[in-house]
Amino acid sequence: MNNPGTTPSHQPRILVLGYGNPGRQDDGLGPAAVAEIENLGWPNLTAFDNYQLNIEDAMEVAAHDVVWFVDAAKTGPSPYAVHNVSPAASIEFTSHLVRPEAILAIASQYYGASPQAFVLAIRGYEFEFIEALTAGAIDNLHAALAMLTERLRAAHDPAVT
Amino acid sequence: MSDVQVSQGSRKIVIDPVTRVEGHGKVTIRLNEAGEVEQARFHIVEFRGFERFIQGRMYWEVPVIVQRLCGICPVSHHLCAAKAMDVIAGVDQVTPTAEKMRRLMHYGQVLQSNAVNFFHLASPDLLLGFEAPVAQRNIIGVIEAFPEVGKWAIFIRKFGQQVIAATGGRRIHPRLCIPGGVNQNLAVEHRDALRKDIDQITQWCRDALELHKSFVRSHEKLHETFASFPSSYMSLVGTEGQMDLYDGSLRAIDAGGKPIFEGVQPAQYRDYLIEEVRPWSYMKFPHIRSMGREDGWYRVGPLAQLNCCAFIDTPIAEAARKDFMALGDGGLVHATLAYHWARLICMIHCAETIKNLLHDDDLQGTDLVVTGERRPEGVAIIEAPRGTLLHHYVVDDNGQVTAANLIVSTTNNNEAMNRSVTKVAVDDLTGHEITEGLLNHIEVAIRAYDPCLSCATHALGDMPLIVTLEDADGAIIASRVKQ
Questions:
Q1: Which of A12, B25, B194, B481 measures 20 to 30 Å from B367, CA to CA?
Q2: Cβ distance B155 to B203 under 8 Å?
Q3: In the 8-state DSSP scheme, what is residue A52?
Q4: Rounded Cα gap, residues B171 and A50, in angstroms
Q5: Please, where are the H alpha helices in B29-138?
């Protein structure tokens, strides 16, 4: 097993992109997850958050081999759900809506990059104008982080699995 | 793609969303007794509440907090709040370095945000055609048909983000402004890096404008009439009447181009504007006080910025403005699709202004902050990418915000969006079916304004755009969900 702090260059480049509004309670799950993932400090791991996805995220996505989109979920299973996501272009009624599929489509079409991509949907419960996660969301976050860290570690160092 | 379920007995058609969506849009079309379109309304379901969220915050932290209002234009809120907090800090004029740093950040923001709107949202409709298959009518379809557009889209946006990062310390959640000034100047290495790219960015904006004009030339009637109507307009203008997106006074003009008011300072806004609350909408309905509720509505945004200004003080954009205004045959340009043309001119103006600022040594000045005697109230206005944005705060003796009022660009355009959707419904609705074509045209009309989902959540499971058709009694006849 390699030391995460001294990884060889052939290891996959991993991106964790969390998004949501921390001022809307559990909508901040994505950014909260990123804050924890950043602490891993692996040289082949990039993590950042934003309020929403934007088209230039395609550049960052294209520069990585494995991408995790981390978002809060208003519906679906607790504590979280993971699904593969593939490129799919779309057009919305406002520029304030950009889906992971669209980001991947731009990365593929313009940069010729097809990273392995997942959506991690962490279940949230309350979305009011409060700057704190609910207790239930925090529990879900911990469970999701345990899974994500394990998956990242496996991708980071296949010898672990 | 939509999935339709029909319940014949109740004449109710329900289409359930089945895919991941984040939207908050809802359109209701109401028919009269004769079965004709009586009105259409565009709802954005999450809007109110942020003003209460700000209450209790210290005034100096508000410029950072308000960035959460918008995932596309956080910088506009950051700057507008900072200008309001200048007033509360007792500062009427920040230093030249502070003002120019803010202007540089703002014009970078407007450039990149307008680029997202045009390339990502509008260009599929405009360059591929309204009736192009949905599967192709997206940015990927545009890139396939016009490979260079994809390059413009990404790199103009990226350049704007680099301007924001250079001025605000980082691309996401920048922190340039503090009450009374800024906390940094522009590093020479950032200035030089941006200087290298600005001419290319300007040229790409010009190329995009020419490409768009080729669409207009081949669709003149459509461009003139689609979702269009005469209206009043409002925007900031500079002291000489020039386009100024960062500062100035409010100017409003009627559909004939005559001034309704001019020279209105931000603190006077309530003397000229009223915000009406209607029970069916989360958005307020601002209108011009002297014209009343029915006639006082107006439009803001790039089209208003072009119609309201007397000139643009950068040469390439000014030439483009004159060309654009010729569409109005001596009057204003009222075409709703002209928002896109106007947006591209604004992008050129932004690029030219950025270049000018990058050659201004004041940006390397070290006099960053001015102090003053604190005041209890501050109002500021800025021209955000989607139009006039107003922040109004009241603070107590401890410096805590006790009241806040925000009028965002999309709120200013609320009635106009309803009228554009109504126009589309009147023109396109036949019978009681919400066709793919009608849904598509409604979206095209809304995209011209590019409504902001201010302070919205972006969680999985939010609803997409829904269009509902109601009879004269309000009973649902049909609805359709954009997937």
A1: B194
A2: no
A3: S
A4: 10
A5: 50-54, 62-65, 74-88, 96-115, 123-128
Residues B350 and B472 in one domain: no
Query: Tokens in use for B77?
Result: 């809120």
Q: How far apart, in whole angstroms, are the C-alpha atoms of residue B449 and residue B447?
A: 5
Q: What is the ipTM of this complex?
A: 0.71
Tell me the CB-side half-sphere exposure of residue B231, using CA atoms within 13 A. 28
- Is residue B381 in a domain? no
The beta-carbon neighbor of A72 closest among B65, B452, B459 is B459
**Confidence class for position B432, pLDDT limits 50, 70, 90:** confident
Q: How far, in Å, CA of B102 to CA of B265, rounded?
A: 19
B458–A51 CB contact, under 8 Å: yes
Interhelix angle B436-449/B414-428, nearest 10 degrees: 150
CB-based burial label for B483 (10 Å; 0-12, 13-18, 19+):
middle
Mutation choice for B interface testing from A19, A34, A52, A56 by most B CBs within 10 A: A56
Q: With CA atoms as reference, report the closest residue to A66 among A91, A45, A52.
A: A45
- B422 and B360 share one domain: no
A3 belongs to a structural domain? no
- Alpha-carbon gap, residue B158 to B155, rounded angstroms: 5
Q: Is residue B9 domain-shared with residue B130, that is, in the same domain?
A: no
| Average pLDDT rounded to a whole number, residues B255-260 | 97
- Number of other CB atoms surrounding residue B237 within 10 Å: 21
CB-based contact B143 A110, cutoff 8 Å:
yes
Search chain A and give the residue with CA nearest B453: A96
pLDDT tens sequence across B159-201: 999 999 999 987 667 889 999 999 999 999 999 999 999 999 9
Chain A, 81 to 100: residues with Cβ < 8 Å from chain B are: 89-99
A residues 136-155 lying closer than 8 A (beta carbon) to B:
none
Evaluate whether residue A2 is within a structural domain: no
The continuous run of DSSP H or E covering B410 comes out as helix B409-412
pLDDT band at B16 (very low <50, low <70, confident <90, very high): very low
Model confidence at B294: pLDDT above 50: yes
Mean pLDDT, rounded, of chain B: 88
Rg (CA), chain B: 22
State whether B450 and A121 contact (CB < 8 Å).
Answer: no
